[in-house]
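#lab-general

N.A. 3:47 PM
ok so I finally got the sequence cleaned up, no stray characters, all 292 residues accounted for. can someone with queue access submit it? mine expired

B.Y. 3:52 PM
send it over

N.A. 3:53 PM
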Amino acid sequence: MIGAALQASPTSPAPWPGLSRPAPFRRVLAATAAKNLRVARRYLPNLLGRFAQLGFRVVFFLLLAGAVAVRPAAGAAPLTGSELFAFFLSGLLLVVFIRPSLWAPMEAAAADLQSGTLEYLFATPGSRYGYLAGAVLSELALGLVGFAPLFAVMVWIARPGFAGAALMLGACALMLVALTALGVMVALLAVLWRQAGSLAEVLGVVFEMVAGAYLPVTAFPAALRWVAHALPYTWGYDLVRHYALGERWATLLPPGQEWAMIAAHAVAYTALSVHLLGRAERRAKRTGLHLL
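B.Y. 4:20 PM
back already:
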């Protein structure tokens, strides 16, 4: 879908080469992240509202854990009380990454498109991937303010030990790589279609629900389980719960295979996002930046 929209247009003479030096990925990444953090500091009510929303979710799941039970698999004993609360918290740990990875690049591209600065960004000799990834990095830095206490509560309740806690963090970090690349592809939709906010919100909700953020994937119909297996979120949720709940949680696949699944998604999404972003850059050079 994205690839078809980036097909080549009639060519025009190549522009005269400029004298500017290209800015490397790491410099663009750091500059974009610093700029977005300064902007976020100017709008503290919006930032506080995000943390309040996360806090309300935690309180809701705490109340829900005392009222219901969830069976992790057919024939297994149901999760209740603190175990069920840890189940919900493990879902929230990755939900914290959904906004930075999936929405931040799209929101950055849409904002710069509306203000007219996106054409400048595509004209300058800098890393466009660093620009989009910098938006993720700044949002992640802000999200860590909510992630850190959430993770601390999770460790205190589940008692996974040092190795288990480290592996949970490793799974979250690997998921971030895969989801950042997915967010870059969603950002390209914002560039092509001008408005993709609603699409990103729908994708975020679908990924949360289908991948098992709030219910075990084993409880879904067979067709929906196949969809869940195609999403990187599913394996991230499964691994975090495996290391948090230990023997009380049976993984969909052996843990080593689930790590490989997330890594494969990360490599595939990164390669595809780099390819599609390169096609968008070449299209901008051929057809004129005013078509962005």
